Amino acid sequence: MKHHTPKLILLAFAGLFFLASCEYDYYVIPPEPLDPGDTITDTTWNDTTVVVDTISFAQDILPFFANKCEICHKGSTPPDLRASKAYSSLMNGGFVVPLKPDESSLYLSCKPGGSMKNYCSAAELKLLQRWILAGAKNN
Ligand code: HEC
Q1: How far is the CA of 10 from the centre of ligand 1 (A)?
Q2: Are 117 and 108 spatial neighbours (Cβ–Cβ below 8 Å)?
Q3: Of 2, 30, 119, 137, which is most buried with the most CB atoms under 10 A?
Q4: Inter-CA distances, 3 with 8, 10, 12, 60, 68, Å
Q5: pLDDT, greater one: 129 or 49
């Protein structure tokens, strides 16, 4: 019986590590959406500080999709950027990670160097960035 003890101790340690790693996942504090007037240091734009505005998806983002993107993204090429589909297509398709423009392919593909850069002005890119930073709401 006695020679089983080291194995048991090892098992106990393995279990503890396992539990500790799970615990870490559970206790990660989610980032808070930025409020209008908050500032962030923006590494994409050479470490300048940008103020997060209130961006309306319906009023600021959808018209720009309609003008610049919808000609190609009207159903068969994801994301579907037609007004009635855009929000669900972006979210369900994983093109937007709320609060994280640098993990959102919508933002990354429109950035200089991205595959959609030619269709998106700097001002429109900033709109996308600020909308995502403010929580990417369907507002
Ligand atoms: C001339 C046609 C055309 C226009 C205009 C266009 N796209 Fe695209 N887009 C495509 C095609 C084709 C793909 C799929 C192949 C690829 O990724 O290049 C695509 C892919 C994408 C993707 C997915 C990229 C990825 O990494 O998964 C996103 C996001 C996107 N486009 C956003 C936009 C936005 C936003 C606009 C408007 C600013 C836009 N596109 C304008 C043709 C277009």
Answers
A1: 52
A2: no
A3: 119
A4: 10, 13, 15, 70, 72
A5: 129
Residue among 79, 83, 110, 71 at smallest CA distance from 95: 79
Q: Within 6 Å (CB) of ligand 1, which residues are found?
A: 68-69, 71-73, 77, 79, 95, 105-106, 109-110, 115-116, 119-120
Instruction: Output the residue whose Cα is nearest ligand 1's atom 3.
Output: 72
Cβ contact 82:70 at 8 Å: yes
Place of tokens 């979210």: 91
Contacts of 4 (CB under 8 A, 6+ apart): none
Residue holding tokens 């993990």? 103
Residue nearest (by alpha carbon) to ligand 1 atom 43: 72
pLDDT tens track for 67-111: 999 999 999 999 999 999 999 999 999 999 998 888 999 999 999
Would you state the structure tokens that stand for residue 57, as one six-digit string? 């998806």
**Is the pLDDT confidence value at 55 over 60?**
yes
Cα of 46 to ligand 1 centre, how many Å? 25
